[in-house]
Amino acid sequence: MINRNDPEIGKKVLQKLAGLADQAARELGRPPVLMEICGTHTVAVSRSGIRSLLKDCLVLKSGPGCPVCVTDQSDIDRIILLSRQPGVVIATFGDMLRVPGTYSSLEQERARQAKAEIFYSPLEAVDFAEKYPGEQVVFLGIGFETTTPAIALSIRQARKQGLPNYSVFSINKVVPPVMKVLLSDSELGVDGFILPGHVCTITGRKAFDFISAEYNKPAVIAGFEPVDVLEAVCLLLKQIIERQARTVNGYTRLVQEEGNKKAREIMNQIFDPADVYWRGFGLVEGSGLKINRDYADYDASLRFPVEIDTVSSQSNFGCACGDVLKGKINPGDCPLFAKRCTPLWPVGPCMVSSEGACAAYYQYELS
Amino acid sequence: MQGKHDIVLLSHGDGGLLTHRLLEKYFLPFFKNEILESLTDAACFLVQPGRMAVTTDSFVVDPIFFPGGDLGKLAVCGTINDLAVSGAKPSYLAASFILEEGFALSELERIIESMSLACKEADVQVVTGDTKVVGRGQADKVYITTTGIGYVLPEANLAYFRIKPGDAVLVNGPLGEHGLAIMLQRESLGLENKVFSDCAPLNKLIEPLLKRFPGIKFMRDLTRGGLATTAKEIALASGLDIWFDETSLPIGKTVKGITELLGLDPLYLANEGKFLAIVEAREAEGVLSYLKNDCRAKEACIIGEIGPGRGDVCLKTALGGARKLNMLASSPLPRIC
To answer: Which of A7, A68, A366 minimises the CB distance to B319?
Structure first.
């Protein structure tokens, strides 16, 4: 098997890519515009310097691929209120800690009084709940199809162990519905999509067939090594040149046609689809995952109902994260970028999450 | 089972009999030297003419024992290395201990022994110190503050203003080991003991280097924030850009593998036995081969150069692209999807 991190192979693919990009630009009458819709891709592309290498021959945009970033302001505010409930310990992946809500962040709440613990895996949070029966452990269920099965497992595990002090606040989401919203946007102007390899290991290639079948756009599932991304770009450019639109699996070493059925079964056992709000996109039909009736005792939103002021939750202090997530602007086009909004004092979540587009551009891109 | 004499009691800090016992049984035997043994309120010693350097640092690492070292070794090496990269030859240390009531005396002994071994290796002496005990829960086991004093080598001429475009940037070995070793030990991911801290005193390596190579213009140890953060500080202070070559950066195979798995960047992980040196270009190869001949710096390498600019740190990626290295806003976090 070839080393997909091998810079020599990468350089060869780059040469091929430059030629294809030229051809595609001639075909389109302008440089091709591609979008990656996975935060891990956003970071991989910036870290390996691919964005700087491609900037002269094509436009590479970032889409709604970072689960922290797409979390609606109202959900962040709910989490803040949740952390103020007596006896509650918020259990979370690290990235959520610093995301600013309308008035506060978990990090600030923790410094005052709230309890928040960082975990790498939801099952660790279950162990924590078992160890501290006096605490109400609320896990922040965040993530796309990749993360959700483990969260579903944690709920199953908590029931198996009969733990009365573990629950999940689910803001989990699935990717295909928001892709449809994105594709229906007449102003989008994207010629092809680099699809999220990790998400597709669960959903399977087929789940994204609609991009080419219904919207006539090329799409390629890509892995995360530099060579993976470059090859995916080549496959997209070829489709643009040949005026084709197919959803191609460029990550065959991990992604299968049908995906991971078992993981989806576990998800479906615990969660039902729900209409939920996305930052920048508003209400997206069937894009959220709500804990179903059978497991309602583990639903933190029922166990600790909190009321937020939905009017004030809409305010975002001039932050353009919504437009960044839709690929309408680049992070650098936001007037707050690197001025009022920096990783140290983030205004929007895209500057906080390690996989957020603003954070990646701030951290890695040469100005 | 632990008896009442096996753990730190509040009375160990009250200045009475138990304080004396603690001193005589645990501290004095390991830190044997004439100045300390005079047991006066302050250490007194003769000085030489010239410039002196002084630095202080507090050490609160959790866990206190980790692969490759412990809090004691760290407390000695950290302070010695701050002196060494400032061009000083460390001579004496002051060590101050804050102990938590209930802390095992056997662990305290291990820490003190480890400090004494590091002192021997670095040829420095602990000449004064202090211990305080706080109630259970008011501190975490043990905190150590060390203050170091040393003479600035007359040959050392290290200053930001000497850095110029074209200078070479060197490091003395692989990056990210200490930070990762601590993190793995702390997070119990089942990867404990895969990576060892590089914690080591650097003065014996740096002193001959500075005496021999006047073209060394600046040095820093690569502790908290790792190479990237330190480089950014240097770039900002000098107003110049630093360009690293990704293919030249020394990162061990295990560190590379585990950091990739956890979504961490080894360039931001702390080191406790690594320094960065900025060297006049024509002396760079000489410094490199001198370092490589020392068994403590076999994997030293030239990792980049200084360029004109405005305080950016840039990385030439293996693919031939470029990207910035910035300071991190918070501690490195794991990826979430």
So the answer is: A7
pLDDT at residue B336 in the model: 37
> DSSP letters of A266-318?
HHHHHEEEEEEEETTTEEEEEEEEEE-GGGGGGBHHHHS-----HHHHT--TT
Q: How far is A10 from chain B (nearest CA, A)?
A: 6
Among B268, B312, B337, most A C-beta atoms within 10 A, so best to mutate, is B337
Contact B312 A93 (CB under 8 A): no
User: What pLDDT score does A5 carry?
Assistant: 80
Cα separation of B202 and B190, whole Å?
Answer: 31
| Token pair 């009999």: residue | B17
Q: What is the reported pLDDT for B15?
A: 86
Per the structure block, which two tokens stand in for A188? Answer: 């989008």
- The C-alpha angle B244, B250, B252, rounded to 5 degrees, equals 145
Q: Provide CATH code, domain B10-152.
A: 3.30.1330.10
Q: Is there a contact between A52 and B321 if contact means CB atoms under 8 Å apart?
A: yes
Architecture field, domain A73-174+259-313: 3-Layer(aba) Sandwich (3.40)
Asked if B260 reaches chain A (Cβ–Cβ under 8 Å), the answer is no
Report pTM. Answer: 0.83
CA A74 to centroid of chain Cα atoms: 18
Domain spans, chain A: 73-174+259-313
Distance set, CA B94 to CA B60, B87, B99, B147 (Å):
16, 20, 16, 5
Helix or strand run (H / E) with residue B235: helix B226-238
ipTM: 0.76
Residue B262 is predicted with a pLDDT of: 82
Mean pLDDT of chain B: 93
Cβ-based neighbours of B221, under 8 Å, separated by 6 or more: B81, B82, B84, B85, B202, B230, B271, B272, B274, B275, B276
C-alpha angle A276-A277-A278 in degrees, rounded to nearest 5: 120
Read off the tokens for B54.
Answer: 């002084």
B160-325 fold: Phosphoribosyl-aminoimidazole Synthetase; Chain A, domain 2 (3.90.650)
Do β-strands B65-66 and A219-222 pair in parallel, antiparallel, or remain unpaired? unpaired
Rounded Cα–Cα distance for residues A10 and A102 (Å): 43
Decide if B31 contacts B125 (C-beta within 8 A): yes
Backbone phi and psi for residue B36, each to the nearest 5 degrees, phi listed first: -65, -45
Listed as ranges, residues in chain A with pLDDT below 50 are none
Please report which confidence band the pLDDT of residue B328 belongs to, taking 50, 70 and 90 as the band edges: confident
Phi, psi of B97 (to 5 degrees): -115, 130
Residue A1: predicted pLDDT? 67
Q: Which of residues 223-252 of A touch B (CB under 8 A)?
A: 226
Instruction: Flag if B333 and A363 touch (Cβ within 8 Å).
Output: no
From the centroid of its chain, how far is CA A37?
8
3-state helix, strand, coil in chain B (%, to 5): 35, 25, 40
| CB contact B256 to A (< 8 Å) | no
Please name the residue of chain B whose CA is at the shortest distance from the CA of residue A95: B333
Q: Are strands A247-249 and A219-222 parallel, antiparallel or unpaired?
A: parallel
Residue B28 forms contact with A (CB below 8 Å): no
Nearest chain B residue to A145 by CA: give it: B337
Query: Hey, where are the domains in chain B?
Result: 10-152, 160-325
Q: Which two tokens stand for residue A352?
A: 């906080």
Residue A34's nearest CA partner among A241, A185, A193 is A193
